[in-house]
User: Fold these one by one.
Assistant:
Number 1:
Amino acid sequence: MGREVRRVPADWEHPKVNDSYIPLFGDSFSTAAAEWDAGNQKWKEGFRDDYDGGWKPLDGSEEVTTYAKWTGERPVEADYMPDWPEEERTHYQMYETCTEGTPISPVFATPEELARWLTNNGASAFASQTASYDGWLRVCRGGFAPMAVMDGKGLRSGVEALTD
């Protein structure tokens, strides 16, 4: 959870209901659905994820009878950003990922324009904390910052922590 830059088409308008953004996962729906389907198939074969890149036999400790009860329901396409082709993802938009993801900026053509807008508008990097242009630019170019970091400098936004 934190701040994440997403590549979007130039004309992207994040969907809203009653003037509020609908949270959308940034991952690919097709990938998430394929992974869920593969896990469901393995469950039917008597295995579950070992969380180390492999599968281990169901041993009765799972206390549930279906894959959906174990891991959650199959992904729903409406909960995800569209799976645009790479060549359509020409612009940048900053998202908060404390929910599935809602935009905190308009769409911009370059990471520099996005970072400048975030800085000039005092966009939230974490709670009421904003961030410097350099901090925002690093995230705009690199893709993601955790919500917050606790270190020798105290509790601060992940955006600012990346500038160290």
Number 2:
Amino acid sequence: MRLSAMVFLLLALAPVAVRAQPAVSVDRIDITERGIFRTHLGKLEKNGEVTTGSLRIVGPGKLVKSTTTIPGRLHARFGFKFKVSGSPAGAVVTLDCVTRFPPQGITHPKTGQVHHEDRFKATVPVGKVGYAGYFVGRPWEIVPGTWTFELWYEGRKLAEQQFTMLAP
């Protein structure tokens, strides 16, 4: 059974050796592209903290259309690319990723539970480009309204991007 998932891409992430790292400073997160993407769907990882029950790691994505208006349709892939600025370059940082759904939330058909947001952690190297987004894999995930993506580092919200999903 294929489950849809919140997607998170880490481009140019090199293997990280376990060793002491110098103090890390994150100054800001810049959004570099936003809209509808073409991505290669990758590994599905179980995650009980998100609405669909799993996260999907995606391959390098290509921006198809720069927009904040998303058609409400199955298989829509939308989100944004971002770059973490700080020091030292290449240091791996853990971001708290939050997706806030429209006010009515997403209702999981098997449990009947209404979800208003998803939260998970992801790692990205300072100075590299990452991607945060959503893949609509089931009809019940098509929820018209404002979707808000947030990236947090150590309790500070450093990036926010809103999208408006249209009714099917």
Number 3:
Amino acid sequence: MAGTQYVQLVASLPALGPPLAAKSVPINRVQLQRRLHDMLTPDHLSELETAASMLAWPRQPLPETDADFVRKADKVLPTLRSATLRRLMQDQFELRTIMAALRRRHAGQDAPAAGTIWGYGRYVRRLREHWREPGLGLERTLKWVLPARDKLEKDDAVGLERILLEAAWRQADRLADTHDFDFEAVVLYVFRWDLLDRWIRYDVEAAATRFGTLAAEALDAAPMPLKADPDLMEAAT
């Protein structure tokens, strides 16, 4: 029956909880992938893998330019049968395009010239026309843009990452409201699982970096006997 094809699969997936609140993923990657491979139809598994390869933008090959990626998106999106999956991908590509504009402007670059292929979606023209405005002309429509700009200006990488992941999560949540036990529900779960996993990993790495910085500062401020003395080191050997 349409809409209930994956009742068993969805029911077997543990809740992800509030956006990015968990300290660990409720199901590990190996277990999740095994369930998807065992319980999705071959066509749906292929469609999910195609979408995942596009959504994993940070892992795209470095030689690929913005224009190459946009052309690839224009080619792949029409092949997806699920309108919800296409909408999910479009939302994420637009989010990343807006963030690319903020980063370019922060780096002192001018707006891309008209006709240049550099971004995807509905906002490309507006971004170019409102390039010098703090919110790129989108602050009323997308509440996360100004906070993201502020984090970027302050070089707060952790805060910026959190804002972007929460915005992506909210986009997926809105789409999930109309899906319970169908293929789209599975895709939206996997997408949010990946956001949670990405945040946990990023947060751990950031915490380790912060700890290393604090440890170095503490060592610099420590009394001299606590620091490595070349003479003492030589005597010890």
